[in-house]
Specification:
The protein has helices spanning 4-13, 79-86, 118-140, 143-146, and strands at residues 24-27, 36-38, 44-49, 52-57, 67-69, 73-75, 90-96, 99-106, 109-115. With 178 residues, the protein is of the alpha+beta class. It has a three-stranded antiparallel β-sheet with strand order 2-1-6. The chain has a three-stranded antiparallel β-sheet with strand order 3-4-5, with no helix packed on it. A three-stranded antiparallel β-sheet has the order 7-8-9, covered by helices on one side. α1 packs parallel to α3 (118-140) and α2 (79-86) runs parallel beside α3.
């Protein structure tokens, strides 16, 4: 399972969660540190409302918590989910003496992401893929993205994503190695 810091970096970068049974998450509020929950059709279900998704606790949990807004939940994507999100950019997962390496190819460029846990290596690769997608999207906006399209302060700029959760953003050792 990836760390909460790495999960937050993915969320900040733009990864959106559409909850399904079996997904792991934590409640991202003080007082819930270390408590990891799993969506299950019997105990915790995602309920869709016009105002947003709510995770409903169905009375079988050990303490009274009726529901929590999706915005207060932090998805901890599993290894297989991260691999699926890499899609066609994924080339290989390799084990070495220090841990794991995930190799991806994007726009003809090969990159390798190393971590002690395979899920962290996949997450590091996904952070770079999301960032590259955001950069490509911004570049495709041309003058609109730079604010020179007559929009004044309403220009898109960085689309509110700041540094898209990159830099060290809690990636630990899941950064590119080559």
């Amino acid at each position: 399972m990836i760390s909460p810091q790495l999960a937050r970096a993915l969320r900040v970068a733009g990864l959106r969660w559409h909850p399904i049974s079996g997904d792991m998450f934590l409640i991202d509020r003080p007082g819930f540190e270390g408590d990891v929950f799993a969506l299950s059709n019997m105990t915790i279900e995602a309920h869709e409302f016009a105002t947003g998704t709510v995770l409903g606790f169905n009375g079988t949990t050990e303490w009274a918590l009726d529901s929590v807004a999706l915005d207060d939940a932090l998805w901890l994507p599993a290894e297989h989910q991260l691999r699926a999100l890499l899609a066609a950019t994924f080339v290989a997962l390799r084990r070495d003496e220090d841990g794991y390496e995930v190799e991806t190819v994007l726009a003809g460029q090969s990159q390798v992401f190393a971590a002690t846990d395979p899920a962290d290596a996949y997450a590091g690769a996904l952070l770079v893929l999301i960032s590259a997608s955001s950069d490509e999207f911004s570049a495709g906006l041309g003058d609109v993205a730079s604010g020179d399209a007559g929009l004044g302060d309403a220009g898109l700029g960085d689309a509110g994503m700041g540094d898209a959760g990159m830099g060290d953003a809690g990636m630990g050792d899941a950064g590119p190695v080559r």
